[in-house]
Amino acid sequence: EVVTLSIECCYQNVGIATSAVLAMFDDKDEIAAAMFVPLFYGLVEMGVLGIYCILAWKLGWTKAPKDENMCLVLTKTYEISEEE
Questions:
Q1: Rounded to 5 degrees, what are φ and ψ at 35?
Q2: Integer angstrom CA distances of residue 72 from 6, 39, 49, 75, 78
């Protein structure tokens, strides 16, 4: 749960920032310049969070076994069911 919480805390919604830019500016040049910030942040965020998720998995911080195949980890759920 700590990994999930850390991702939720650092993940920011780029769509909200993009909508704010469109609402704040009328000039196309200003919109283009301001739109760079949320789009660039979203790309950096995607890369950093992707690396963090892989590192957390490989360090054994997640419920997924660290020696499992990555394709299997991405498609299988590791949630604990009530039956267990």
A1: -65, -25
A2: 23, 30, 19, 5, 11
Output the tens digit of pLDDT for each of the chain's 84 residues: 789 888 888 887 888 999 999 999 999 999 999 999 999 999 999 999 999 999 999 999 999 999 999 999 999 998 877 765
Q: How far apart are CA 47 and CA 38, in angstroms?
A: 14
Name the token pair of 52: 């963090």
Q: Determine if the pTM surpasses 0.85.
A: no
As to burial, measured by CB atoms within 10 angstroms (0-12 exposed, 13-18 middle, 19+ buried), residue 59 is: exposed
Whether 63 contacts 80, CB under 8 Å = yes
Structure tokens given for 60: 């054994």
DSSP single-letter state for residue 81? P
